[in-house]
Amino acid sequence: MKPINLAEIKPRPGTQAFFRWRQIGDDAILITNLEGNWLILTVEEFTQFARGESTPDSPLHERLLDKNFLRSNYDVQAASERVKARKYFVHGGPLLHVMVVTLRCNETCVYCHASRANMDEVDTDMSIETARKAVDLALSSTNGFITIEFQGGEPLVNFPVVKEIIEYATERNKEIQKRLEFTMVSNFALLTEEKLQYLLANKVQLCTSIDGPEELHNAQRKLPVSHNAFQAAAGWIKRVNEAYIEIGLDPTLYHVEALLTTTKATLGKWKEVVDTYVGLGCKTIFLRPVDPFGFAERARLRLEYPRGEYLEFYRKSVDYMIELNKQGVEILERYAAIFLTKMLRGEDPNFLDNRNPAGAGIGQLAYSYDGKVYSCDEGRMLAATQDQTFCLGDVDTPYRKIVGHETIRAMVIATNLDQQPDCVNCAYNPYCGTNAAYNYKAQGSVFGRMRDNNVCAVHKGIQDYLFEKLAENDPEVMAIFERWTTIRPREHFVQDPGQTPALEAAEAEV
Amino acid sequence: MSSENQISFTDIPDAIASASGTDRSVSMTVDSELYPLQAVYGASYIFIDRCYVFIDRPAPGSYRITLSAKQSVEEAEALRQLVGEFANELLSCTWRHQVTQDNRVAIETVTVQAIAGAMGEPSLDDLADFDFTDEALDDPLGIAQSWEEKHGRPSPDAKAKTASEPGADEAKADAEEASA
């Protein structure tokens, strides 16, 4: 890309309202404003705009006017409404409650961010008493939506506590009447038909991890005895999807989704990764880079890669996914969907690690097996490597002390992009976010330095790619992006506040 | 720092950074007009897991920051990396300091909304624990006192009243003489 020459353009204040800009092609300059409206201009148009010389009644003037880029006609009311809509989550309170019911895990992953424990380390199981207190704390949240996410280790290892949390939370919610959901992130290897029926009866959304094709998955995720973690997961993905159909759910909406952790070995296998996911019936791939937490830090030489290489992988993968969509295959990339929802719809899908400010403490809390409470999942991952920076107290600490903790205040400030060098001037400011725990781990402070920050590089690179696609304005691609940003609520997974937990019935049948 | 073990960095001016292989430390001198003290503190702090950090003022108008590595760092490249990382962090902290001042209202508003939204209304139990005493208003240095109270001078009201009374001019003259 040939950079534009600002010395030749000679920008000066004129008719423009506040804007930020970024060159995304030889003849394509993106401009965005405070409320997240955007336009892609040619160099000639940008020159006029930057010089404050847009002529009334010209097509450019109309476009600028329409998107609120002109000072003389700046619609303050419209801008504030859009900012308000984008930031609706700010005062919401924690909705995601990650419950680490055990650190024990039956699989050993080379990058395990959670620092799993061996199967005989039963002291890393959450107790029933701690579980109940964690539920009480979660239901104290000011947010009317509560999602309890079971994590580990492998949550199925401590299934009695999973059941206790479901039953106790459902029972308590009869009185509290929140919109309650349960999700479980599991490798599925310990799933049984009995457990599945229980989870289905209690509307627990299931999610697993797939690292790509079988060989790669099994190389990164070691499962003793069968030595085939991939088949264990794939078999249950198929079975769960069948079970959803059996109970009358629409398979296009209700199916198992999986999470990918991109390591150095994944980068060359972009096509195989996408094909594997499509083959398993997944409709979403989340191309997440490896994070520097847990075992991933120790094994970084084997796992890590320059983020430029990741972005090449990302572009090839999503290009291929777009081609598949053109052929009628329904598959979307989650990062793209998050960013596109903000860009195209002016809404925030509330992905907690990619919002401004981020969700640590004010959007999520993580409850460790030992009762300690952390600002976020990454906070408890750091604690597993003896760093308690993000510990807010324990399940006996009053709720208001947890969320009013000074660490949360620091994290809210640190992830506010209006205080972040680089971000204050970045054209992607309205759509972006930073992660304080990641910054702390990777760069030593919750603020981080965006210019050499891997999360920033990934976010910028993905948004570059997406705006390049938007600049091309291919109607087929635009229609695909439109679909990717259509939020289809999965009401089945919302617990009916009046219902009795289905566990007794399920248990009786078994 | 022993001079025979002094390490030079070819790409960093000697006046800014010097290093000692023996002491496995680097010292940087920065202009206090370019970098506010808060930024120096902020940048220094993130090195305390790797280094012992010393800050002093060798001369008016400058700060000197010495990073002494906790673990063996004798290669010039490793010391240069410390200098470079510190310089970048210092610039980042300095700019953040400026940006935070510029956007203070927006940052505070969002933070207050986020924390207040997550905390919600205090319960009766919370209020029962609340400290309603006026301890926070204790003022041992007399900062909240008026100038007149603090120095035993008559208040402007009292002065006006006194001025209207007979003999006020003499009293004023006596007071001025005493203060002279």
From TrEMBL, chain A:
Radical SAM core domain: residues covered: 91-327
GO MF, one example: iron-sulfur cluster binding
Keyword Signal on entry: no
Lineage: Bacteria, Pseudomonadati, Myxococcota, Polyangia, Nannocystales
PROSITE patterns: RADICAL_SAM
Entry cofactors: [4Fe-4S] cluster
SUPFAM superfamilies: Radical SAM enzymes
Stated name of the protein: Arylsulfatase regulator
Xref: Gene3D superfamilies: Aldolase class I
